[in-house]
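ok new one. same drill as before - structure tokens go in, u give me an amino acid for every spot. 218 of them this time. try not to just spam alanines like last time pls lmao
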């Protein structure tokens, strides 16, 4: 089936809030795109074993897609021209380059929450810094109900900020090509980009080029 609301959000970071509990382990970012507010929810732990996510960052990210998105206005966009594929998109890394990272560990700068906070703090240093979020958009049907994390309304946001192909059986319907999630941060004063990429260990990287389903072994 693939994701039904995949696209790109160009926005500014306002603040962040961690959810380290067992029930809803997510890292949440409060973002603004023009007059709209968004909650960007990033999975920091897998429901299936092994639970640690795969994490990779490129601090001097160079890719053709940056020239396609840098002049876009703020807001959400759906276009095949601005989509991400970890396997087919020549992103500059492979699965073997990604690191397993736990979501919650005592000590400084050694778990996924703290790694994300490091980059989000950079994104709020100056008003000219932009964030680009690839994933699925969602919106509450209740206009007056405030967002459960940041309190704005209507509650809406982005999720699936990770690889979205080669899933195990339970999430197989989300498989597709050119619909992977990630975060790019642009620092215009230096014209530098940072790329943040996430995947689940259970996901296959040997997938069908049409469906994104994992190819059968053997």
């Amino acid at each position: 089936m693939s994701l039904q609301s995949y696209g790109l959000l160009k926005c500014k970071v306002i603040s962040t809030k961690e959810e380290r509990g067992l029930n809803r382990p997510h890292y949440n970012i409060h973002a603004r795109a023009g007059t709209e507010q968004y909650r960007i929810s990033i999975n920091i732990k897998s429901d299936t074993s092994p639970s640690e996510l795969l994490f990779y960052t490129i601090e001097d990210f160079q890719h053709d897609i940056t020239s396609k998105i840098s002049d876009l206005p703020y807001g959400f966009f759906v276009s095949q021209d601005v989509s991400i594929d970890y396997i087919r998109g020549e992103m500059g890394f492979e699965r073997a380059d990604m690191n397993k990272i736990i979501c919650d560990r005592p000590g400084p700068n050694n778990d996924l929450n703290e790694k994300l906070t490091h980059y989000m703090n950079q994104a709020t240093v100056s008003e000219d810094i932009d964030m680009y979020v690839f994933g699925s958009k969602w919106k509450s049907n209740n206009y007056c109900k405030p967002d459960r994390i940041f309190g704005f309304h209507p509650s809406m946001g982005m999720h699936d900020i990770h690889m979205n192909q080669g899933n195990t059986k339970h999430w197989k319907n989300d498989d597709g090509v050119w619909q992977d999630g990630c975060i790019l941060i642009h620092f215009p004063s230096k014209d530098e980009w940072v790329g943040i990429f996430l995947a689940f260990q259970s996901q296959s990287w040997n997938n069908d080029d049409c469906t994104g389903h994992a190819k059968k072994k053997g």
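The radius of gyration is 17 Å. and btw The chain has one domain: 6-200.
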